[in-house]
Amino acid sequence: MDNAAGAPLFVVSEALCYYPISTIYNSCPRYLFYALLIASCITRWTGWLADVFLGAAATYAGTAAIQTFIMVSSFQKPQDPGPVAIPWISANTSLIKEFPSIVTETNSIQVSPASLELDADAVMAIVVTGYLVFLPLQCWSRILTHDRARNLLFYVWNALMLAGSICALVYSARTPKLPIQYMFCYPDYPPVGDSSNDGWQASWRTSTWNTSVWDTFSNVSQWNQLGDICFNPCFNTSQILRQATSLHAVTATDDTDLPASRGFWRNVLYSKRYIYSLIILCLILNCLLLTYRFLPYRSRIPSAQIVVLWKDRRNIWKGFKEEIQMAISSPSPSQDLLEEGRTPNTERRSCLTFLRPIFTRRFLKAFLHISVDAVILFGIVFSMIVSPFTIVAFVAWIEFQIYNDGPSQESPRQVGQWAYLVSIALLVISAGILTLKYEIASSTELQNEIEQTKKHLEYLEERKGACSGAHRLEMRDLRDHSKGN
């Protein structure tokens, strides 16, 4: 308090108003999600175990994607700003010890209540990581996409993750545009740590923010009704997925901001351009690989799987060399002259005779064929390098951002955190027991299973016959149409 200038009626301090990360997206469930993705990649040859891990990870990421849709569609814009006259406080005031972010050297501020949704970083970590893993799995893994139904399911989940990633990035781009928040306090009662909203009362807000602030601090009985030491206009805001009592406010200090950094590491850790560029590059490469599957182009690249490419590397290289040799091999001089309508007895071969194969249609066609195959091969190999690096870089970057958002609401000891791990463990145990059902089944159960399998086999044969008949009918219609033309 300034003894020379007298005690001001109230002081103003910059504040941070935020909804903390929901318990479902705290550190333990997020790390469990990362572990499930890794386990899905490692155990994809086991079948049932990979289905358990991948299904649990996909449903968790799907929940986060749906939340991003709701967050973007119901984004709460900051309220219209209103001026508030405040007591003048000099820059060298002693109140800065109790109020590190005190507002000085001004007679008025603009109040525009808004709040941060820290779930934005958490859901972005989940949906983007899920998309960066699910898309390469669909491109590379034959085991996880060996049938149409499973492949269709991957397409659905990839579309959901892509939409969720776009919504999460759009919402994240809106967050830095939120205005500065303020809290109003008595100079003798500085805020102690974090304060939460106990529910906004209509009587706290009168005609304008200026009137509300001055009436609250001019009337001690009204100030006692706040239930808190300071008056926080941001408690007037709300989020569609949050309870009003979960909004928190804290004094903005250097500790609440990102720590300072310099040089190259500042650009790497705090700039979104590098991470977003990697994500876009990874997206383009993997989408090209998916498109390559459906093109009618016949390539010498047998598959998009690294194991297949490594086994057939010699055949691929041999095919490239053979096609080049066939393209540049020039025909005999007699054949060239006969094609041009001349006789070979008086013509002399010149240097153009050796360069002529390079300008033929056959060489250009072979050159384009080899160039496209080389681009496809380079894209596959480059994608296998870029995709894992992008996943690791993004997870490290987003977890660093979440770490700076503040501590978790719950510790790993609380049931809200370890319950997810226990549920996955119970699911794995249940799936493992079901895989042993034939070993522990009785003869009656086996007989019933045989009968059901026979019925199912008859149904599959009927479906196959129907598909074959439809295919033959379609081919006959095409032949009739071609004959009519």
UniProtKB/TrEMBL annotation:
It comes from the Eukaryota. Keywords: Membrane, Transmembrane, Transmembrane helix. The chain crosses the membrane at residues 57-75, 122-140, 152-173, 274-295, 366-398, 418-436. This is Uncharacterized protein. It comes from Penicillium olsonii.
